[in-house]
Amino acid sequence: MKIEMETERMYFVKMSEEYVDFYIENMNNPEIYQYITTNPIIYTREAEIEWLKNNKDLYQFTMIDKETNKPIANAGYHEIKKNIGELGIWITPTAQDKHYGYEILNKLIEYGYNELHLNKITLKVHENNKRAMHLYEKIGFYKNGRPKNIVDGIGNPTRSIHMTLKK
């Protein structure tokens, strides 16, 4: 495990095959996929390993709890274009409501501005994900553009909200 960054309670390591079972368990969990996709699919070990091999250059991290040494989240930049990075995050259900999201996002924002030289950070959030929207607004993200009508990962109508954080 090569530590790329750390916070008070977590290590950030690059996504790797070592944590594939953790990714699969969470990406196939409706508590997670309802908020991160509009087209749920069954993630397989083979497909995830292939994805990791084809996306080694992405700035995607697995967060490891320092106390338990177990993975608790996945977050990073999905896409970077013209010094604008699109951020994404999910936290395993057993680690939610413990303020890890705030800690993770602040570290990734610092990393984005200082190491990746981003001028702007964006993200998309499902309107029905109230906890995430509250967190993003607390950090300083603001709604940007018109919401898009979508169906979330478990079939509920909602809207996709684009949010932006400027340096």
SSE succession: EEHHHEEEHEHEEE
**Counted beta strands:** 9
Percent of residues in beta strands = 25-35%
Sum up the overall morphology in one term.
Answer: globular
CATH architecture: 3-Layer(aba) Sandwich
> Roughly how much helix do the residues carry, as a percent range?
25-40%
Largest sheet, in brief, is: 9 strands, mixed
**Spatial extent as radius of gyration:** 15 Å
CATH fold-level name? Aminopeptidase
Low-confidence residue ranges: none
**Which structural class fits the helix and strand makeup?**
alpha+beta
Counting DSSP H or I runs of 4 or more residues, the number of helices is: 5
Characterization of the model:
By secondary structure, the protein is of the alpha+beta class. It has a single domain (3-123), classed as Gcn5-related N-acetyltransferase (GNAT) (Aminopeptidase, 3-Layer(aba) Sandwich). Helices cover 30% and strands 35% of the residues. It is built from 5 helices and 9 strands, in the order ββαααβββαβαβββ. The chain has helices spanning 20-27, 30-36, 45-54, 100-114, 130-139, and strands at residues 3-6, 10-14, 59-65, 71-81, 84-91, 120-126, 142-143, 148-151, 157-166. Strands 1, 2, 3, 4, 5, 6, 7, 8 and 9 form a 9-stranded mixed β-sheet that branches. A hairpin with a 2-residue loop joins strand 4 (71-81) and strand 5 (84-91). The radius of gyration is 15 Å and the shape is globular. 28% of the residues are buried.
Question: What are the SSEs and their pairings?
Answer:
Elements: E1 3-6, E2 10-14, H1 20-27, H2 30-36, H3 45-54, E3 59-65, E4 71-81, E5 84-91, H4 100-114, E6 120-126, H5 130-139, E7 142-143, E8 148-151, E9 157-166
Parallel strand pairs: 5-6
Antiparallel strand pairs: 1-2, 2-3, 3-4, 4-5, 6-9, 7-9, 8-9
